[in-house]
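Researcher: Quick sanity check before group meeting.
Model: Go ahead. Protein one:
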Amino acid sequence: MTLLNSIYQSILLGFVFINELVRSSIAVARQVLGNSSDLKPAILAVPLDLRSSAGVTTLANCVSLTPGTTSLHVSEDLNTLYVHVLDAPDPKAVVESIKDTFETRLKEIEG
């Protein structure tokens, strides 16, 4: 992977993060101002395809910085990220969202 491509992928990750930040902030605000009894919090295991500890750390930070989610733990073998989610009516969709947004971009940066 060239340096220019790495820079491009990093900028793209930044835009993806900002998009997720805005979308999640709006969703959390609606949940807080609405009926919080409808929330379905969950702790989810996100299987990881990243190869580096830097990639896993960056993913965990992106998840924690996004409103409504918090990274709790990374397995010793770096294959699973445990995440607390404020509202997970469809846990599989939440896991896929994390993988499709942040992890996909980070895998492209890893090369």
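Researcher: Fine. The other one?
Model: Protein two, sequence then structure:
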Amino acid sequence: MTTPAASADATSPPATGPTTPASAPGPHSAPARTPGAARAVLKAEVRLFRREPGSLFWVLAFPTVLLVVLGSVPSFREAQDDLGGIRLVDAYVPVTVLLSMIMAGVQAMPPVITGYRERGILRRMSATPVRPTAVLGAQMGLHGAAALGSALLSLAVGRAVFDVPLPRQIFGYAVALVLAVASALALGALVSALSRTSKAATAVGSAVFFPMMFSAGVWLPVQAMPDTLAQVVEALPFGAAAEALNQAASGDWPGPAHLGVLVLWTAVLTTAAARWFRWE
């Protein structure tokens, strides 16, 4: 199950200044960014994102569709002793929540950013009032918002269709959710930094995608994993996120260790992405 290259060949955002010649200054010597230009970039990125039905489906709709398909299986609606008495469909709601983040951060976003770099769009923007960071900020904001929207959709459908209880520790659930989105976007930024082309970004993203899905519990919920495997998975960002979301859903505050793992991974991935990212 892999997503199409999200929008690597999408129409580039409209230029807000002259095209940069070969000897133009690099991004660090670009003019100061203006709020109006940044808003123009955000509007352009929103239009381009809305024109990509593949990305919209895989990020926004697919996790909920998967939840509906799994919940339609009778055995998924029966209580499981090895899951502490909850049903499989209850355990899969946080899994689908995390799946939307993995889709957005690892599969959808990197091909877009690397495609902009590959076609010289980021370099040309360095000679305009818009800094290339405006494009990165817009992309991360859009994909993060899409992931959060998909998470809310999964929670709503789970409650309405399968009577899955809503999280009882709302604030703790929100904290874990935001940290999980930050980790997913940081991982996507690192994939973008290490990939020179959009095709490479798609390949690297796919290689990262499946291990992250496993750690989130797509094939086997973290609660049902053997102890040793569960400990390994909980040291990964989405394994820790799955446990944090489960704890908040049951009414407890997410464990400090799980939240700490998310914060640590976000910091490490962000630092690595900033270290290796190139504008051209």
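Researcher: One line on it for the slide.
Model: The chain has one domain: 34-276.
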